[in-house]
Amino acid sequence: MFFPGSWSGPSSGNGLDCRPPLSNVPIKIRNVMSSQCLRRCAGLLPLVLLLAACVDGEPLSTEPPGLRIRLEATGLVGLDASREGSYRLWLVDGESRFYDAGGFAGGTTVDVELGAAVADGVEIAHAIVTVEPPADADPAPSAQKLLGGAIRSGRGTLSIDRYVTVGIPLEPSPGVHVLRTPSDDGRGGRANDDAGLWLYNAAGDSADGSLFVRLTPVTRGWIYEGWIVRDYGTAAAAWLSYGKFDPDARRHVSQRDDTGPGPYSGQPDWKRALPGRIFAPGDDWLTNGAGYPIAANMSFPLDLNGCLLPPTECQAAGQVSGPSRWTHVITIEPVTDEDEMPWLARPFPLLRPYRNPIGEAGAEVPRVIGFDPSGLPQAVVTLTGGGR
Q1: Residue 349 CB contacts under 8 Å (≥ 6 apart), including other chains
Q2: Per the confidence metrics, is the pTM higher than 0.90?
Q3: Cα atoms in the 13 Å half-sphere on the side-chain side of 204
Q4: pLDDT in tens, 90-104
């Protein structure tokens, strides 16, 4: 049986990597001697981008050359190589040995033709796309396995199931969130509740699980992160993280995230503050007395809620007149940025399945978290030639 979580990468031996920069143009790969690699790269680079896995001594495998792999994908948006890394395609045989089939740059639609040499008689069982970290020098696949699937009769459909998730599809109905600021519940009432967002249902019950948001567990290379976004979908969008979190064994999001009430809550020890009152992910955005970085033109406390009443009534209620500019988003992030400070957090561009406008309603009126799988990556891989 094939277990993605237990794979180990191929041995690099004494190999030297002479891969040039990535591109969206067709790519052909052969395992050749170092001098051949240099001649090919020099002679054909103006026409196509060639990736060559070069080693000192004998090639890793040479019979038969010419296995062709075509990857046709959607949703593989371009990555910032210096900050987000790059994509890499791997073939896996029936004995869980990995074959590096080369890197590519991604795009909304990718049609990349790759070639690799695989020993005669080796049966390719699976294909995987990983996200490799910036300046990656490790010859093995990263923990960020993004897409994968079985190869049958030279063809396979690749999805995030069993690679990003643990074999269960992403939860289509995760639940609701509310607006609330537990950081100032004991300081003069609930006047600032529009300045906080928390993942629970105020009308729910912990006994039947309706209190909690439900999410599908993800594999060890990934983690959930929550955000509030001002002017979502525009060039001026400002993303504020409220922390990273995982569901429990019952798929309930029933524990606090890694930021507690958050750096803008007014709590001095914000990561560990309010231990008896916080049981779910979320943050308060009440004050910035500590002077942490924040996007321009934001004043505290934030007003996440909109107000459609006459302007004088909105002002009297302490709200900004007009519809809310804020959207709630839950993304799936690589664990490689798990320790970043909230004010430095930037969303990974690939996996953004959950989103809802915060809208205009009472603070504890549940806001339904929407699920949109349309932008999730997927691919079809086709193998032709020897060794498949």
Answers
A1: 77, 79, 84
A2: no
A3: 23
A4: 999 999 999 888 888
